Amino acid sequence: MGDAVGLLQFLKAVGEMARGALSPTISPVWERHLLNARTPPRVTYAHLEFDQEFMDRNDDEITQPNNMVNLSFFFGSNEISTLRKLIPPHYQCTTHDILTACLWRCHTKALQPDPDQHIRLICIVNTRSKFNPPLPLGYYGNTIAYPTTVTTADKLCQSPLEYTIELVKHTKGKATEEYMKSTADFLVTNGRPGLALNRWSFLLSNLTRIKFQEVDFGWGKAVYGGDAHNTDGKHLIPFTNSKGEDGIVVPLYLPALIMERFVNELNSLLKNENPNGNHNYIKSNM
Fold first, then answer.
1. Closest Cα partner for 252 from 243, 261, 242?
2. 225: containing domain
3. Alpha-carbon gap, residue 244 to 101, rounded angstroms
4. What Å distances lie between residue 39 and 3, 177, 181, 201, CA to CA?
5. Cis (ω within 30 of 0) for the bond into 133?
6. Cα 144 from Cα 76, distance rounded (Å)
7. This prediction's pTM
8. What is the CATH classification number for the domain harbouring 172?
């Protein structure tokens, strides 16, 4: 029905009226026909995000509720600077790109897959800016695309980090207006399948520009806005830690053994050798 941008617009509208406004600054726009499937439908992309061949029927065996751990990892300027030292000085990439690449690689290594195991990256991309003419201001429907890239565990883990970053860039770059139209056509012609997620899928969304913490119902701005107990993917969320440092927090929900391996892989990248054994995470009860 909606996405993070639409939800934020709704929450801000409620906040404005709670503070006394007679109507919201931005009026809601329905107009769902703008993203309807075409007539006739025309699928122009391979939509791997819905490919049921990637489903792993044994996933339930390793994701028992009593075997899961929920932790949140904070990345401030020091952590991001350390990660950037892993790539050549003049290599151009965003903080989102390198953080996604490092998290994906650490997650894959933690799974300990066979070298030829197919590994998927699914990027959740807001496509509002991709449409020409633009979607109307106030449109709060779902404009999310799930472009997907597949590689092997060996290539992902053994290649230079720039290889993984390029895969991230390539994946996000698929999310065009035509990709969204193709997605609608694919869903209509294939019975609206759900996302094909399994243990070998790394699904990530960048919420650093979605300012949930700016919502104000009359009690002031929120301390935090975003996932606290996340079970359906990985999200980059803007966060201010207890020291007052702005950065990005990533809540993860993984089986205990995989979480332990993930922490070790991440600390290896960050060269965190704290003699007290403290890892770079926050217990996620936010």
1. 261
2. 4-283
3. 26
4. 25, 16, 11, 32
5. yes
6. 27
7. 0.89
8. 3.30.559.10
**Unique residue bearing structure tokens 């499937």:** 37
CB 250 within 8 A of CB 103: yes
Structure-token pair, residue 86: 């892993």
* Percentage of the chain modeled with pLDDT above 70: 88
In angstroms, the CA 237 to CA 250 distance is 6
State whether residue 243 is helix, strand or coil.
Answer: coil
Q: How many CA atoms lie within 13 A of 150 on its CB side?
A: 14
**pLDDT, position 284:** 45
Min mean pLDDT across 80-89, 197-206, 223-232 is at: 223-232
Specify burial of residue 20 (Cβ count, 10 A radius: 0-12, 13-18, 19+). exposed
- What's the start-to-end Cα distance of the chain, in Å? 26
Instruction: Please choose, from the candidates 157, 284, 158, 162, the residue with its C-alpha nearest in 3D space to the C-alpha of residue 230.
Output: 284
Tokens of 48: 């791997």
Q: Which amino acid would we find at residue 262? A: F
Tokens standing for residue 75: 């990345």
Q: How far is CA 212 from CA 120, 217, 222, in A?
A: 29, 12, 8
Distance CA 171, CA 178 (A): 15
Q: Which residues pair with 70 in a beta bridge?
A: 253
Domains in the chain, number? 1
